[in-house]
Design brief:
Layout: H1 22-27, E1 33-39, H2 45-57, E2 64-70, H3 75-88, E3 92-95, H4 104-113, E4 117-120, E5 132-135, H5 138-156, E6 162-167, H6 173-189, E7 192-198, H7 203-216, E8 223-226, H8 229-242, E9 253-258, H9 261-268, E10 274-277, H10 283-294, E11 302-304, E12 309-311, E13 318-321, E14 324-330, H11 333-338
Helix pairs in contact: 3-4, 5-6, 7-8
The protein binds beta-D-fucofuranose (GYE).
């Protein structure tokens, strides 16, 4: 390790899985890099894949000592985790910010301590005191969902769209971007968004929100947009219980984001009509950034992940998003097999 580790200085509850025992830290010579990772939580399949990606890349075998904190969707815990990493004098801090604001003070503290911060996935929108960000363009994902729905409705002769949206965690850049992107197309097309509530990116909340939508908007909606797959799984249970049919054969078009393995299985079975991928496997790119910083180079400030748009029916081959033609991919077993 490059700096002294104060493993005992962090609260036991914050040290979830990768805390090295003092003996192995001793043995680990001078070139082990200590990385603090303040992860959002464990709310979704996407999140599980993101955590695994970091744990695989920043493993002891690869020469890292990963200090992993699951912040359980609590912004106060996340700030505390970052401050804990500063106290431990880790070499690098990775943050996946639960919400996009409230960061400048703690990032200034990181800067003062000389610890580079790498932001992954969600963005920080009120400070630029980080070395690099690796993630997705959430507004593009929302626009893609809107453009797909527009093209799909035209193809199917559906003239009226009455949509219900289950949003992701309020104040997260993923929620903000997906909401803005979809709304932009909805407004331009004159669609009705009957309601748009926070589903917290988890299955249980997605189900609760959909249960209440089924009561309040019975017979009035023909589209449900869930801002991640886990919410969609909850929404499917709620609609089934309420006797609402969805998917390719149903009365309600179901749109989702993330395209995790289980999500794609539901696209293939026709329960979800379209799923807009968000790629959680950022860790290899983060390692590149760290290597560049170690070599005294300046990394790119923003690195975008590559993503695909998945559908069930072979009726549209592409959509145009922000003026760029983008393919629609029909889900196959091979695609599911290869997915995160
Ligand atoms: O869509 C959701 C997760 O920040 C992009 O967070 C991420 C989102 C992802 O819980 O499943």
């Amino acid at each position: 390790m490059k700096k002294k580790l104060a493993v005992l200085g962090i609260a036991a509850s914050m040290c979830v899985s990768m805390c090295a025992a003092p003996m192995s830290v001793q043995a680990a010579e001078d070139d082990v890099l200590t990385i603090g990772f303040a992860q959002v939580g464990h709310e979704s399949d996407w999140r599980t894949a993101s955590t695994k990606s970091c744990q695989d890349v920043f493993s002891a075998e690869n020469g890292y000592d990963l200090q992993f904190v699951d912040c359980d969707n609590d912004s106060a815990v996340q700030l505390e985790a970052v401050r804990g990493f500063i106290e431990q004098e880790v070499d690098y801090i990775i943050i996946d910010p639960i919400v996009s604001t409230g960061w400048d003070t703690v990032l200034t503290e990181c800067e003062d301590a000389g610890i580079p911060v790498i932001v992954i996935d969600r963005t920080i929108d009120d400070s630029d005191k980080y070395a690099a960000w690796v993630g997705s363009n959430f507004k593009t994902e929302g626009l893609a969902a809107g453009e797909w729905l527009k093209a799909y409705a035209a193809e199917k002769g559906i003239e009226e769209i009455n949509a219900l949206v289950i949003e992701g965690t309020n104040g997260s850049s993923a929620q903000i971007g997906r909401t803005e992107g979809f709304k932009e197309i909805a407004d331009a097309e004159g669609w009705t968004i009957l309601d748009s509530q926070d589903g917290n990116f988890d299955q249980a909340t997605g189900q609760e929100v959909m249960e209440s939508y089924c009561k309040s908007y019975e017979g009035k909606f023909n589209v449900v947009v869930c801002q991640n797959d886990n919410e969609a799984f909850g929404a499917m249970d709620a609609m089934t219980a309420a006797g609402v049919t969805y998917g390719v054969e149903g009365d309600v078009i179901l749109v989702s984001f993330d395209a995790c393995t289980a999500g794609l299985e539901y696209v293939k079975s026709g329960d979800i009509n379209a799923d807009f991928e968000c790629n959680p496997l950022a860790a290899p790119f983060v390692e590149e950034v760290i290597k560049q910083l170690e070599a005294g180079e300046t990394p790119e400030k923003e690195v975008y992940m590559e993503e695909h748009w998945y559908v069930n029916e072979d009726i549209l081959s592409e959509i145009t998003v922000d003026g760029v033609a983008q393919p629609l991919t029909v889900v196959t077993d091979e695609i599911i097999e290869a997915q995160y």
